[in-house]
Amino acid sequence: MQNKEKGNFKPKNRKTFKKKTQQNKINEDDEIKEIQSKYDSIVPSNVKCFDDLPLSYKTKKALKECNYKTPTDIQRESIGYALQGRDVLGAAVTGSGKTLAFLVPVLEKLYTQKWSRMDGTGAIIISPTRELAYQIFETLRKVGAKHDFSAGLIIGGKNLKFERGRMDQCNIMICTPGRLLQHMDENPLFNATSMQILVLDEADRCLDMGFEQTMNAIIENLPPERQTLLFSATQTKSVKDLARLSLDNPVYVAPHEQQMTTPQSLQQNYVVINLEDKITMLWSFIKNHLKQKCIVFMSSCKQVKYIYEIFCKLRPGTSLLALYGTLHQDRRVAIYNEFMRKSNVVLFATDVASRGLDFPVVNWVIQLDCPEDVTQYIHRAGRTARHKAKGESLLVLLPSEEEAMIEELTQKKISINKISIDPRKMFSPRAKMEAFLAQNKELKESAQRAFVSYIKSVILMKNKKVFNVEALDTDAYARSLGLVVVPRIRFLQRLKKRQQKQKEGRESASSESSEEEEEEKPVQKEQNKLILAHSSEDEDNDDDLFTIKRKDHEVDTQIGEDEHADISLAKNPAKAPKIVTKAALAKRVLKKKIVANKKVVFDEEGEQLKDPTKHLQSDLAREYENEDEDDGGGIDIEKAKRLLREEDKFDKERFREKIKAKRKAKKQKLKKKRDDDQQELDDFGSDEDDDVDLSWLPDPDKIYGPKNSDEESVSDAESEIHQLPTKLFEKPRNKRELSVSMSENSSADEDEEEDKRSKPIKKKAKKMASKLSVDEAEMLAMRLLGSE
Ligand SMILES: Nc1ncnc2c1ncn2[C@@H]1O[C@H](COP(=O)(O)OP(=O)(O)OP(=O)(O)O)[C@@H](O)[C@H]1O
């Protein structure tokens, strides 16, 4: 087997290799003829070991190397028919070796057809989950190691480009339905026209409602002249399902049918406890089984996520892992491998791990939430006690679930014992959980989501005899998760209201049957909405393309236009264009109950201040806010438009007021400035009444007075300079006079001025002032002002 990801084998010596190949070909031809001649004479009861079957040397050798010597019942009985080319429906208990029962015929079929890399796709094996596909791929790598076929693992979450380019060289494809259809639709290199054999592992799951449309599309694209093998522990016998596959005279092989539906080595127990005690029970169980390997099944991803997170914080003293559909594919594979490796570990999982996975030595399987039906119970429990190994399973039932569920299990010949729990061994982690939730907002939100998700899952179950949402003590359950405040379950309230209305409608004696139908529609609509919402939230199974995943959920055609659009997308998932409208986004936000953070402002008295911009003002809006949510959700566009128009009036008014206030403030500011200026002027004027202040000018008596008065005049000039600003408001009296006097003065003092340019101006003014006329002094003052 050449794994596509590993590259090709290159011989060292070409000549020797060529010779050997030719020789091998001759031998192979003979071998093929020989083994084919024995096909018709296979008697299952005579097959004691794999050597008794007419298999190729390469297959036998690989089987031996993997330590597979004796075929299991299903292998013994089905391989013969498959080699003969018959279509096979194989049913055998979990862990009974169905994987080899189809892988061996696949290898043999291609071998006897002398399939080569150049022949393209010869076999397609479809599995409902990625992990199972991965596991089959790994088994194929081992048992097909001696063959030269190429194999590819084609599952969601992997590199599409990588797969795309290698499609045409892939002989055996192991895939999940969604990804296969995607390649069929989009990849020009995908070519299955010469395909020989189709295998559906977990066939009933592949053919159920969740994969119905995809599988139909896949089957349409496959050649009708092919061999088909279907295997499952809970095989479908539905004529409708089988007709879709156009099987040709299939043979039904079910070695254990008359005896049992679960492995003999599986010890099955159940316990009845209240919903609020589940977490305590689980915690106590883990604490009491620290040295064991356990799988705990829950009904939704959000529950698994929360329980894993909080239990990790509580530190039980053993390894914890969580596997669910919304995890990234690489993470899923890593967790799968880690759980395979470890021996003392607890895996919390959704039903993504319930089918087909072959974890070694699992001691306990706990079904913390009641399975949807017996089929799901069988697959979950079957993760332990595989192939002759021993194992135990514990089904946790609520008092309301016990009677109906046990009856169904008994009908299917499943013997299960009721056990009780020793209350002395129960330790409640509730107080610690509450403390963690109080510290960690994200964890609290995770708990809230887990809570809502569980309630939703119960509502969505079709079997109302087992699943009764009315019987749940939701408040106590919320508290058991560590939540102090019980999250609001709006969909439940709406559903109850509708049911109430429906009841009342029925009770009114005069109501006619047509009226009742009208009443029923909204209820159905509500349930359908939940179905769509829930299925899109919990991506437990393979491909994200599927909107409806659970088997028993029927979607009524009597639904609103929006929902209809959603469903039509779901019906043709790969072809549907992904158009995300604003309305769809809004709906999504509504559905997820995303509430934007609010800023609350309080005044000094502690009264809440209402921001008019954040609160609806109009009467219509208030009426809308107080309205009952009976309209089934959604947006009334017309009403919303009217509401916006009303609110718009208030907004405009607010805006006008804002602008007015701004203008007023601006005006006041301007006025104040003017007043200040005026005040300043007034202040200047007030010193010397309203006359022009000439006090700064040099005293002519001093200037023209006796020479010995020099010192006095300088000091006056100094003081004048300090008073200069007041003169800014005066015009020079005689420009001509000024200029002349200035020039005269400048020429007289030119040399002196030149010498003293670097000296302070005040000093200069000191000397000059003694010789200046009144006008000259004024001019000097002006200049000094300018220079300062
Ligand atoms: N002939 C054999 N001899 C020994 N071990 C075998 C043989 N065939 C299968 N096994 C082992 O039995 C285990 C279960 O096999 P497998 O996973 O194929 O079971 P299954 O019937 O497909 O289970 P499920 O119904 O859960 O999918 C595997 O570990 C496998 O290696």
From TrEMBL:
One of its GO terms (biological process) is regulation of gene expression. Coiled coil: none annotated. GO terms for molecular function: ATP binding; hydrolase activity; RNA binding; RNA helicase activity. It catalyses: ATP + H2O = ADP + phosphate + H(+). Keywords: ATP-binding, Helicase, Hydrolase, Nucleotide-binding, RNA-binding. Residues 79-253 form the Helicase ATP-binding domain. Signal peptide: none annotated. The Q motif is unique to and characteristic of the DEAD box family of RNA helicases and controls ATP binding and hydrolysis. This is ATP-dependent RNA helicase. It comes from Hermetia illucens (Black soldier fly).
